[in-house]
Amino acid sequence: MNHKPLKTYFFVISIFLFIASLTQDCYCLDGYTECMESIGALLWGWIGVLYEIGFIVEMLQGTITTENYQFGAHLSWLANPFLIIAFVTFNFYPKVTILLSSVSTLFMLSFLLVKSVIVDEAGHYCEIKTYQAGYYLWQNRGISHFFVDLNLFFCKTLQSLYFYYFLLFLFYFILLSLLLR
Asked: Taking the model in full, what pTM does it have?
């Protein structure tokens, strides 16, 4: 079965979701009037990953305690490189793409478990009040990438493609209705 139209369609939708997510806020913090912009989270999130890696190293050396530290907030940023690599390997290595997109989706979903994020270089934390449209669009891009990968890998008939499109449309409709509440 020729998957070229589906791959082209997916590529356009995926780029659109990514660009749309960058134009929105991703989360709001308690005590702050402005929400975190998605483009800022993308550009500066890697610094948080380095901060968390540094904390892990210091914790393993025994030079720091975990009393005032909340681990994991910035590790969800690692979904971005996994998703980019999965996007690049989409046409060439389907099994690797499924693995990478599933890891990316898990990193994206892990951010929902985080209660607070670091807000300054002094190490102060602030509680996440709400998640915004930018986060949900970013998450939706990763989840849809995972489902498209699975579908293209296991799809044998055109009927399963139509069923997949129905499920994806239903998922987008539910997500949109939740965002517009």
From this structure: 0.77
